[in-house]
Amino acid sequence: MAQINLKGLRKSFGSVEVIHGIDLEIRKGEFMVFVGPSGCGKSTLLRLIAGLEEISAGDLEFDEKRVNNDVPAKRGIAMVFQSYALYPHMSVYDNMAFGMKLAKSNPGEIKERVHNAAKMLQIDHLMDRKPKQLSGGQRQRVAIGRAIVRDPRVFLFDEPLSNLDAALRVATRLEIAKLHQNMKDVTMIYVTHDQVEAMTLADRICVLRDGLVEQVGTPDELYEKPASVFVAGFIGSPKMNLLQGAFSHDFDCTTVGIRPEHIEIQTDGAAKWRGKVVHTENLGSDSFIFVDIGHTEPVIVRQIGSHRIPVGTEIGISPIDQHIHRFDENDQIIG
Amino acid sequence: MKYYVQETCFYLLVLIIVIASVFPFYYAIITSFKAGTALFEVDYLPTSFNLANYAEVFASPNFIRSIFNSVFIASATVGFAMFLAITASYALARVRFQGRGLLLMTILAVSMFPQIAVLAGLFELVRFLGIFNKPWAMILSYTIFTLPFTVWVLTTFMRDLPMEIEEAAIVDGATPWQIITKVFLPLLWPALVTTGLLAFIGAWNEFLFALTFTASDTQRTVPVAIALLSGSSEFETPWGMLMAASVIVTVPLIILVLIFQKKIVAGLTAGGVKG
Amino acid sequence: MTSYPQHSGGQSLAAQRRKAAFWFLAPMLAALFFVAAWPLLRTIYFSFTDTTLTNLYGGEWIGFKNYLSYRQLSSGRVIWKGTLVDPAWWNAVWNTVRFSVISVAIETVLGIIVALILHRNFVGRGWVRAAILIPWAIPTIVSARMWGWMLNDQFGIINDILLKLHLIETKIAWTANIETAMTAVLIVDVWKTTPFMALLCLAGLQMVPKDIYEAARVDGVHPIKVFFRITLPLIRPALMVAIIFRTLDALRIFDLIYVLTPNSKATKTMSVIARENLIDFDKFAYGAAQSTILFAIIAVFVSAYIWLGKVDLAGEGDR
């Protein structure tokens, strides 16, 4: 429901500035993901939007109204925490109803909203349990349910999946995607360090680095047109091959990047590079072949299906020309 | 072979520690059951079970009175200290503000005050307020050590509560007061019991203020009553009765301490302060 | 609490919390001022007057006379007066220091030993830990009387044990005898406070990760070397805190000595002699001066520790 504007947002802890002036517009009903390595300031940025941290400079606007000094409860936000942060002494029902009770809502309405949210998340049979008696996945649902009951304008997620095991993580990721489908007009902001989560969930991704925005765009844009070496290396798994020195001079740039799937194995003599296979990873659906062509790191080549090439085999590889990313000496994209 | 020697030595050491810890109290108990001349024979094992000393203690109205005085004073002191300490420790543990470290150090310093240093000033205050020889004098003066102690221990407990639970409550719209009463207190009650118990023991055992601020036998607290319990001359100390009184006031404490053993250890180490 | 730049429109969360913190702290600070700061200031003030117990408000300012003053006789001889030249006071200072150093040293060593034992897993450990809590739970006054009985010269069990073991030949008047009174006090204090020391050391020991010991054992390091090279340095912070608390506690000791060895010159500490002057001898202002000196000594001791920065008493460092 809300459009969020960040204008020159800064945050310092004591004399250390961790957010160095961020301008960003988050559209109504958008699923925006903040992604970046640990220490990039993504969680701090989320907490500034939530109102849990004080903004040192700049403006934060919800629907064109400045909310810098509004307490969290007044901003119309709900938040899902990494550790779930359920109240251990309250039942599931009380956990979800706590906010509305504090707001002195009418009891009938509280009951209705809590039960609707519980039904939506399929936790209505757990209402009398204490958080201790729930599994990790159930706890996370309760935490999401508690947020839904608040009927927020903005839904904030702070690495909500990082405490779950791999299988549950995928399942909950789907849940959250569904939630976004069902709550079309609620703006969602999601913080993660996991680029897979970012790519699968986001309408748009904001890549942060050292307290600055590196690039904002849809997952496709980020994947296909990374604006910098950092984004190129951060988005995509396995990493984009980034070559410097003589390898990049051939392409008239400082760093040249080619994704593993954009490199072909060539058996004829026309291959751009030749090298020995040093390692292969076979995942069944596709295989990654590590080729040492004399660069500091081996080049990774992705092949569809199962390919077994013995270590030590000498092969020729060539990048596909239209998928080459060229970066200048400041690590920025050329052209 | 070497292993068995080592093990034997180890358990021997354990045995010595246990005996050293328990023996004086054990000896007080067996003494308290002796009467007459049996008292003056050294026995290592219980030889008689005479309740005369206990009867004598319970027949002494002043001693019973002193137990009530102590219970009332210690409870009131702890109640008052806890009331102030809960909110204060929340502020010290969870709110960032300038000078917090200094304030914490000051509170800690007060708890380590030599009590004699305030005795003269407190004496004047007690006289000024007209509470000399009344329980209020003790309740007032005991605040000097129970309050910093409870603030300090509760602060360390509050600090250990997860940040995110408080933030969830903030997002839910809870004010600081609601965070304390609706979220933190229900989570902290074991810590509150421990802290309260330690503060209670401290107040129950206090001697200097109680000795100075009471004058009549009806106003004494238990430690003062026991300290001043003596015969008509120094050579006629009623040892049997004295040991019975000692056992009576110590047994409840020991039971409490043993029940809350684990929590007390946690409380002691959290505060690092002697209760 | 602190000045905070006021923005227009509402109060931020941090400002709201700081305001709440102020109101949460105010009653506690007011209470502490009332029972601690004010009486302390009055004590210090009294020490510069000639106030008496019976006439609390009739005292007049006499400067440092309670501490030190001198008068020159017509003969030219200078007579010094005041606490600082009072042999009874210096005797008390010496007793206090002696008591504190010896008791804390013994308690630390015994505490570490007991803690090391309790740190091992053995059958009945819970019971042993419960047993060593008993001395701690017994009120000081009660332990003083219990031990007073055990140390009794005629009928005391301690003398009986020592006689039977042929360690002594005649019964000793432990508490009354000038030579043994301090020993008696030390025995009781060590008995009563070693559990506290042991529990703090044990907590320190339990924070040391187990794999460090396993690594040392794999490397074949001798247990005694492990203790001095690994254990002791790792529990040093916890140990230092415990030692400071114990030392401060020992420096102000009053109740045990007052009850166990009343009026013995060999054990009278600063607190005991100060109270004696304040209340019993009607030298109120003189006692106030002695209280003030004790306070100053402890204050210097504490600030020295804090300034040396060796101990993070407030536990703020990692926050």
Description:
By secondary structure, chain A is α+β, with helices and mostly antiparallel strands. Chain A folds into two domains: 4-233, Rossmann fold; 242-327, OB fold (Dihydrolipoamide Acetyltransferase, E2P) (Beta Barrel). Chain A is 26% helix and 31% strand. Chain A contains nine helices and 18 strands. In chain A, strand 15 (286-292) and strand 16 form a beta hairpin. Chain B is 76% helix and 0% strand. The longest helix of chain B has 34 residues, at 61-94. The two termini of chain B are 45 Å apart. In chain C, strands 1-2 form a two-stranded antiparallel sheet. Chain C starts with 12 loop residues before the first helix and ends in an 11-residue tail after the last helix. Chain C has two domains: 1-46, no CATH class; 87-281, Orthogonal Bundle (MetI-like fold), CATH 1.10.3720.10. Classes of the chains: A alpha+beta (335), B mainly alpha (275), C mainly alpha (319). At the B-C interface, helix 1, helix 3, helix 4, helix 5 and helix 6 of B face helix 1, helix 3, helix 4, helix 6 and helix 8 of C.
Query: Roughly what percent helix of chain A?
Result: 25-40%
CATH architecture grouping of the largest domain in chain B: Orthogonal Bundle
The appropriate CATH architecture of the largest domain in chain A is 3-Layer(aba) Sandwich
The helix/strand order of chain A is: EEEHEEEHHHEHEHEEHHEHEEEEEEE
Please describe the biggest sheet of chain A, giving its number of strands, its sense, and whether it closes into a barrel: 6 strands, mixed
- Averaged pLDDT of chain A: 92
Beta-strand portion of chain A reads 25-35%
- Biggest sheet record of chain B: none
Rg calculated over all Cα atoms of chain A: 24 Å
Note the beta-strand portion of chain B. under 5%
- Count of individual domains of chain B: 2
Topology:
The complex is a heterotrimer of chains A (335), B (275) and C (319).
Chain A: E1 4-13, E2 16-26, E3 31-35, H1 42-50, E4 57-62, E5 65-66, E6 77-80, H2 92-102, H3 107-120, H4 136-149, E7 154-158, H5 166-182, E8 187-192, H6 195-201, E9 204-209, E10 212-217, H7 219-224, H8 229-234, E11 241-243, H9 246-249, E12 255-258, E13 263-266, E14 273-282, E15 286-292, E16 299-304, E17 314-319, E18 325-327
Parallel strand pairs in A: 3-8, 3-9, 6-7, 7-8
Antiparallel strand pairs in A: 1-2, 1-4, 4-5, 9-10, 11-12, 12-18, 13-17, 14-15, 14-17, 15-16
Helix pairs in contact in A: 2-3, 2-4, 3-4
Chain B: H1 2-32, H2 52-59, H3 61-94, H4 100-111, H5 116-129, H6 135-159, H7 163-171, H8 176-205, H9 208-213, H10 222-228, H11 239-259, H12 261-271
Chain C: H1 13-46, E1 69-72, E2 78-81, H2 87-119, H3 125-137, H4 140-150, H5 157-164, H6 178-207, H7 210-218, H8 223-251, H9 255-260, H10 270-280, H11 284-308
Antiparallel strand pairs in C: 1-2
